[in-house]
Amino acid sequence: MTRKTQKLTQGHYHCRECGALFKSSIRDVSQQKCSVCGYPPTGKTRQQGPIGNLQRVNPEAPESGEPTLDDDSHHGRRRITRGKRKVNGNRKLRFVAAGFLFAMLAMLVVRLVVYTFDSGGEAESDAKKKEFERQEFLAKAEEKKKRLFVAGSVASCEQVMLSFLNDPSSAGKAQYVYRGPRLSGVMERYYQAHPSISVKRNNIRIDHGDLLDVSGETVIGTLCKNKIGEQFEVIFIDDGKQWKIDWESFVRYDTRPWLLFPSGHDGDEGVFRLYMRVRDIGEDYARDEFDVVFYKPNIYTKHEFDGVASTSVRVPVDSPSGKWIQKMLQSEDADEGVAKDAAGFTLGDRDPYRYHRVRVRLRLRKEEGEETQLELLEILDNHWYGVKIEAAEDAEAAARTSGSERAE
To answer: Do the Cβ atoms of 230 and 249 come closer than 8 Å?
Structure first.
């Protein structure tokens, strides 16, 4: 049987430009146009023969659906494969773009969190700075207020001091002294042993004054100078009517004459306003003891202090007096700038280096055939005032509490 040959007039073609499969009449390749993109199936720039570049498929294949390629149409398979790679590439591109956007979003969130915390820290820092500036302003205003108060009181204080010095009798002097009636008998005995000062010392002026931190009292500490160039300290206390002199601090009052005390009897006691100096600090810490000596301060000073030291006194570090000494040493190490006493009175360089103002109770120890010794019974204050101040009371309470705890 003879098979008739059928002439093909149409065929399916694969466009290499856009990858589409389209049906068209069989014609010269230069006349072919893709029904999808409008370009020749061989591409925009490539123009080749009808057989080498146009992919002929089985004419019996349906127009819709996948083409059935001839055995020698490997170029078509390659183009179909390339089309799939293009789709996969687009997916990868979208995945990379999504990852990039996620990373940018995460970075933005992190920066926002950091900015929020930084803003909070800056706000807190600004608040602290403003509070510090406010406190500094208030402190300066308070200091200015104190200076104006002292300046307005100097004339009255000078007049009280002149009247005190010029009055020849102890009873007359007592009227210018804080709690004078209570001290009149003490003052009488004191001035019997200490003749009145010379007239040259009666011409005074106040060179400096401080409003002091004394609980329950209005107190001014002043540094005065007389006609012969001597300096001396006078503490004035407002009794509600006028300024009065703190006489005990002025004369550095002791219950017994300091120079005569060592010649007393065994067991004698006295309360004294003295300078205390701690010797050999490192060695004393190693032995759990302080080695201290005492000096009698002068009322009037013109040159360097030249007092004579007492005999050495041993003080256990863990005793109540030892606690006092430790506190004073720590305060001395922490002191910066202009030196001030426990009430805030400016001392400058009037006190010898590492000499501490104390009010102490001492006992005399005399054993036959042995050298006379001093025993420190108690440190009462770290100042010479005749009134209590908070700083001294706090330190004294701490020392007494430590002593009672140790006794228990």
So the answer is: no
**Which of 17-21, 292-296, 302-306 has the least mean pLDDT?**
17-21
Beta-carbon contacts of 303 under 8 Å, excluding residues fewer than 6 positions away, are: none
Determine which helix (DSSP H) or strand (DSSP E) holds 323, and give its type and residue range.
helix 320-334
Number of neighbouring beta carbons within 10 Å of residue 181: 10
Nearest to 245 by CA among 178, 153, 295, 179: 178
DSSP run (H or E) holding 243: strand 243-245
Q: What span, in angstroms and rounded, lies between the C-alpha atoms of 180 and 170?
A: 10
Contacts for 314-320: CB closer than 8 Å, 24+ residues apart: 314/289, 314/290, 315/289, 315/290, 315/291, 315/376, 316/288, 316/289, 316/290, 317/284, 317/285, 317/288, 317/289, 317/290, 318/288, 318/402, 318/406, 319/403, 320/378, 320/379, 320/399, 320/400, 320/402, 320/403
Helices (H), 167-223: 170-174, 180-193
What's the token pair of residue 311?
A: 């005999």
pTM (2 d.p.): 0.65
Read off the pLDDT of residues 264-276 as tens digits, 9 standing for 90 and up: 999 999 999 999 9
Tokens 């010095």 correspond to what residue?
165
HSE, side-chain direction, 13 A CA sphere, residue 4: 3
Residues whose CB is less than 8 angstroms from the CB of residue 223 and which lie 6 or more positions away in sequence, other chains included: 206, 207, 208, 209, 231, 232, 233, 346, 350
Which pair of tokens denotes residue 345?
A: 């009175």
d(CA 131, CA 138): 10
Strands 269-279 and 243-245, by their bridges, are unpaired
